[in-house]
Amino acid sequence: MANQNAKILTAEQEAKLRQPIDEYVGKIQDKLDALRVDGTDKVVELLNDIDSLKKDHIYTQQEKDARMKQLQADLEKAKAVEAKNKDEVAKLVAEAEGYIKAHYDQEYYQVVAASCVEEKAEAQKKYQAAVAELEKEHQQTVSKLTDQGEIKDEKYVHKNRLFDAKMQLEKDIQAAKDRQHAAFQHKYHMIDMLRMSKFSFSENMAQKVENYKYTFNRRDFLLKNGLYIAIVIIFIALCAITPAVKGVPLLTYNNVLNILQQASPRMFLALGVAGLILLAGTDLSIGRMVGMGMVTATIIMHQGINTGSVFGHIFDFTGLPIPARVLLALVMCIIFTTCFTTIAGCFTARFKMHPFISTMANMLIIFGLTTYATKGVSFGAIESSISNMIIPRIGGFPTIILWAVAAVAIVWFIWNKTTFGKNLYAVGGNAEAASVSGISVFKVTVGAFMLAGILYGFGAWLECIRMFGSGSAAYGQGWETDAIAACVVGGVSFTGGIGKISGVVVGVLIFTALTYSLTILGIDTNLQFIFSGIIILVAVTLDCLKYVQKK
After folding, report:
1. Looking at the domain assignment, is residue 305 inside a domain?
2. Are residues 132 and 68 in the same domain?
3. What angle do CA 144, 146, 152 make, to 5 degrees?
4. In whole angstroms, what is the distance from residue 383 CA to residue 306 CA?
5. Domain shared by 257 and 130, yes or no
6. What is the pTM of this model?
């Protein structure tokens, strides 16, 4: 049937439009295939055979050597043919590409693209006409009805008809998009055949841009990035407000370094809890872990004899060399935090207890124990030389940032390049399926908690050095919300099995930057908690919307 809109190409017209290009390039491609059959194609085939032979354990060594000798001889012949035909192949490829460049876009693709634009516009007109007709029919039908039940049924039918019309519109628009995308891809298909999959950087980028435009979905984009966009807008607003209110710019070099410095210890905590969230769990004891670690590290690295006591005993580590005290503080922090996380992990894995309960119990036990043992007092400053030893400033640059970078790299490697990491994703995605596959859910769960404990210990130790001690049981209050919020904002899903280290890093930086900005503006800490709570609520809501199906 003829098209009512002359500007819209039929399938036959589109094929006829492309025919001269396909024929011209096809003839050249036939010549190339003939030149490559005993050259390039043979080289590829023989290289595959050689690779397979190296891995083959059926043949004896003598047979393998003989076969390898023959393949190497054939390969040399094929390479000679390839070298002989190289100039002719290059000439033919250049001729075909020149023709494509001169004719494809102007004579075919642009015409198809214009046709698709008209096709989309035509689909919109059809939809509007269909909706108008359906509304007219609906009003006529309703005017004739008096029974409320019949009117309700008619409204339901009308709603379904409008939905069908909307679906038809989306189908027609998608068909036009498919046609344009196919026309775009055909050009690169021909180039792919000519060059044997050797695209330039610009050609690869052009294909990526086209594929992104083709697959772009506004709803999915907003679900994935809506929160980021809102936070960026807020941060831009803060950057504009701060100079007006405080008289100083927000985005200065020193402020950026301060943000990164504050974010570094928190990075360890977020990386730790991210593994638990990946298992569809959480950890409410992070803040108390930090407090316990701060107290432990401060006692060991204290400047002189401790002024406070633990269970009535005053510790004195001044007899140890400072490097030994620093190392001992780190080891003890890791031991204490890992012991508690391991206990929570065992209860979670063995008794199917939700991590919310096991870590909440940890939170209460740690806080009660630390507060009772120390009477809640602060233990003062650590040795002044320790900070310059562990996290010195080099040219004004705080090297504590490098500790965080190292932690990110190590955890990324564990998550993405180890069996444990792959098992972590598997158990988080579907624990039952992972168990059937032979993965020990118990070991993976306990391992995730132990890894979290190690990271908590490191984070508390670094925070102690950054703050020059001043450890107390109350230190770290509310840090669990920051760590969890950073993970959620970074895309680590509470549904389990979904999350990236890069997302965690972004989440930590976002939260630290916003907190720092609000502090500079003089916003009350309590109001900052409200802000954090709203972000968590929105982030989790958006995450849930990705998986919730409307009924």
Report:
1. yes
2. yes
3. 95
4. 12
5. no
6. 0.74
